Amino acid sequence: MSHGWGYAATNGPDKWGENFPIANGPRQSPIDIVPGETAFDAALKALTLKYDPSTSIDILNNGHSVQVTFADDTDSSTLTGGPISGKYRLKQFHFHWGASDDKGSEHTVAGTKYPAELHLVHWNTKYPSFGDAASQGDGLAVVGVFLEIGADNPQLQKLLDAFDGIKAKSTQTSFANYDPSTLLPGCLDYWTYDGSLTTPPLLESVTWIVCKESISVSPAQMGKFRSLLFSGDGEAPCCMMDNYRPPQPLKGRKVRASFK
Ligand SMILES: [Zn+2]
Question: Is-catalytic flag, 107?
Fold first, then answer.
């Protein structure tokens, strides 16, 4: 891993443990969610996502994914309810996707892979900043949404239209007034479990909230994700795809469901 982590054979998920031993820790993500082995928990509350479109700042190719970043200096865009207590602020959202439509999601459902997965990353405001929260057991809450092949998704299109300006690694462009709640499915039933970041440093600080219902994406829209590059300007072009970590061992954890 002399040139940093990535998703290639030489620096991919199988190698991350060399520099980040927590890769083999007790609460790693993603996992395979087996609905028949989850437990309905009547105490789980409904999710409340309040997002202010004016907090979206920019869209970035960070060399691993495409990410939209939000202003998080006030409680303008927050997640409350669900399995968490207190208030969590939206920091960013990003995606993971495959080289073809038969793979790409990080979580799987009874072994089923989706072509992509959206992650909305929030941090617990009981800590002073995202950076402080990221290493705490209750520091982060990530809402995961599967993308499933179907009709063109107009809510995704504004995002995809910005990709031409951020093809290469370490490029970004302003992305104002975007409401991420338009990317959520109509039904917010979810599974939840204690896990980790799915990229190095793989910190075990994430309360995962994975939506049961997926959102649609067309094959052409999936193609647009794959037009992004892992490589930077001046490097040999390398298409960004298969930027997902496979499911990790459950190690005795229980997955709870908000629905029967
Ligand atoms: Zn992610």
Answer: no
Is 36 within the bounds of a domain?
Answer: yes
Residues with CB under 5 A from ligand 1 (ion): 119
191 is written with which tokens? Answer: 């599974």
Cα(97) to centroid(ligand 1), Å: 10
> Separation of 197 CA from ligand 1 center, angstroms?
7
pLDDT band at 13 (very low <50, low <70, confident <90, very high): very high
Burial 85-120 (b: 16+ CB within 10 A, else e): eebbbbbbbbbbbbeebebbbbbbbeeebbbbbbbb
Domain with 225 in it: 13-257
**Domains identified in the chain, total number:** 1
Q: Which of 64, 94, 96, 107 is catalytic?
A: 64
Question: Is 5 a domain residue?
Answer: no
pLDDT digits (tens, 9 = 90+) for 128-165: 999 999 999 999 999 999 999 999 999 999 999 999 99
Separation CA 184–CA 212 (nearest Å): 11
In a domain, residue 59? The reply is yes
Per-residue pLDDT at 128: 98
The answer to the question of residue 68 being in a domain is yes
**CATH value at residue 19:** 3.10.200.10
